[in-house]
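ok so I'm stuck.
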Amino acid sequence: MSNAHSTTTGITSSQQPKRGHVAAIALMCGAVTVFAMLDATAKYLVEAHAFPVGQVVWVRFAANALLTIVLLWPRGLRKMAKSSKPLHQLARSSLLVVTTAFNFAAVKYLQLDQTVTIFFLTPLLVAALAGPILGEWVGWRRLLAILTGFIGVILVTRPGFGGIHWAVMYSFAATACYALYSIYTRYLSQHDSAEVNLFYTPIAGTLLAAPLAIGVWVWPSDAFTWILFAWTGITATFGHWLMILSLKYAPAPVVAPFVYVGLISMSGLGYVVFGDVPTLWTLAGGAVVVSSGLYLLYRERHEKG
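replied:
not stuck anymore, here's the structure
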């Protein structure tokens, strides 16, 4: 990840980073909003139209792969396909496929605001798992933030109060797999370029997700449904592209807190499309999880090591 150049013609070095950061923040907010559209579309397909989760997962990766090939073609696909760790790239992509499958299964039964709140545990899990996997251990303050985040999720799921749905296990599984995917991405960033990682994810994902669609395929009966399927690939591609651009213009600690805008976009789409109103438990738990994540980012930014 690299920052924008600090100077340009007519702009001082002190002005450029601020302007670049504003653009990066806007791009990150756009990315999480587009990802909310992806989840809302998947929920509509698997809940309202009862399409198999495996089929929606495969189409999402296949459409994403097609668009990625078109976008990367001018830069040379053969160059993008050269990875120093191809087997690791497949393993990393398989984690994203499993993440997507669990997430799409979760949104079939849960409200979007619930799934995204649980998913916000990802940076906390990454911090917790980075120690045993990467040797990047956290201090007691960060550990306390991680535990507090889990308390927030307990508020959302309300175990023991009759409000927990068994499908939250899908969300927890998706979050755990995505945390491992994020750690794998950090590892591969030391060996392959961002373009190579971007290329392998949808291509390998299409191949790995194919078995999920075989045997359960249901042909869409109208053009609108085909458009919705294509939209899953478009939003996946566009969302990742906006996120990459965001990290190009500002470092991760600057833009990472704005990932939590997804709670607003998810809740809004959940209400507009499905009539779901966030409960007070979800809002309270979301506030705790977001606060824990923001504190963790603060510690990462101001204290190295």
